[in-house]
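REQUEST FORM: STRUCTURE PREDICTION
Request ID: SP-0412
Submitted by: Lab K.M.
Chain count: 1
Length (residues): 522
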Amino acid sequence: MKFFGKTSTLAVSCTALIMGIGLVVLWHQYVEETEKTRQLEEQLVILTKQEKQSVVMQRVNAQMEEIANQERRISDEQREKAEHQTAIAEMMRQNAESERQNALEAERRAVAASEVAKNQRTIADQQRIEAEYQKRVADTLGYLTLARQLGDVAIKQMKSGNQELATLLAYAAQMYNMRYRGNDYVSDVYQSLVMCSNSRHNWSRHKGIVHDLAFYNDGTKHFVTCSGYGELMEHIESDGRLTTTTLLQDSRFDFRDVFINRTKKIIYAVSRTGHLVLKGNNLFKVIPVDNLGTLIKLEPLNNDMLLVGERGMAIFDMEKNAITRTCQLPYKVVSVHRYDNYPCIFDDHQRMLLIKGLDKIESTKLPFDGQVTSFASSKSTKIIAYGMNDGSIWYVNPQGKMQKLVGHRSRVTKMKIINWRIHSASYDGLLNLWIVDRSKIEPMPIIQNDGWIMNFTFDDKKEAVWCSDQKGNIAESLISIPMMRQMLKNRLKRNMTHEEWDYYIGKNIPYETFIGRKEGQP
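STATUS: Completed
RESULT:
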């Protein structure tokens, strides 16, 4: 029983243990299940919430979808409106572009029209300026022509003895010529100025041809002349009066050239007969010069004097008053002048010979045909002029270009150059002025003499030219135009009457008075 009791106890213990274990397992399972249930419940809650949320979301989504559909409809409507607006905008843009293009075209046309207008205006301005210029030119030419006509009438009136009217007409000619910048040396205008200003004086002093005249250059009009009749005279001009002293008168001599030694105050004159005459204070000496042929000229050479004949040359010592050396020439001397501070000779073989000494002669063949009877050159302007036996002049400019000038009818006897002005005298009685820095070089007669002009020279101030002729006359002519204009103005005694103005100048030209006119307006 005990065994069975113990067994039963053991069995019960085992059973109890097993049951305990079972209970533990069951509890554990219960706990797990409970935890699972809790978790499931939590999940259920979560799912319920999620489901609720899902429903809500579905509703929200449905609402959102509805909203989206509405928005899509609205968007479609707006899109359609936008497309419509876009179409309208595009049409408006196209219209605007078309209008812009039209505006640009209109602007282009306006610019083109403006350019055409500017061009037309420019052309019109140019035509106006050209018309005004042509009018001024026509007016200028008309007034310059009037000046020449008035000068011509003044000369005729002066020759007919109507000096008062001639002076008025010459003054009017000067007024218009000066106002319209005409050439001061136009023949009629200049000659009327010379004649009516009474600026030329003529004196008959010699019996023979006056071949040369030389100034003392002492600041006064003090000079010496020599003639072919053996006359040697000294002159002083003051206030239009010429005081003359005869130094020598001997018909055995035929004087061709005169030179004044201003230091020693000795006058040297060469005679064609082969004599050199010295005349000074308490000095009179005649020196025969042989083997030179006809004496024609004397020129300074270094410190001595060179005597030139047609067939030879001689050196004259001015300290000893004696000939120290002579030489004969194998050619005939035609004329003697100066070039580059030395005597120069032109012979009958168309050569120019520069005399630097009897043993130093430089020969040059002339580039033209004919006989040179006069010569002049200028150091300042580098121009050269050759006067010919036939009256023509060969002019050489600074570049060496040669031009033939025609203005004299016979032999050119003397030439002088002042700057760009060449003065030439001739047997035709004309003293011509050539202004060679102009494009067209033409002669302008500034003196018209009744006889041959044998020689001429200028006074110290270059205000007057002195001429000598074959009739034994000596003439002084002013070449200073301002001085002659003032003299002409001083000779005016009245103004023109209106009748004289209308007749000689013209009714269409405004009347002007002459007396009281300001300086600078002749």
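NOTES: The mean pLDDT is 87.
Reviewed by: T.R.
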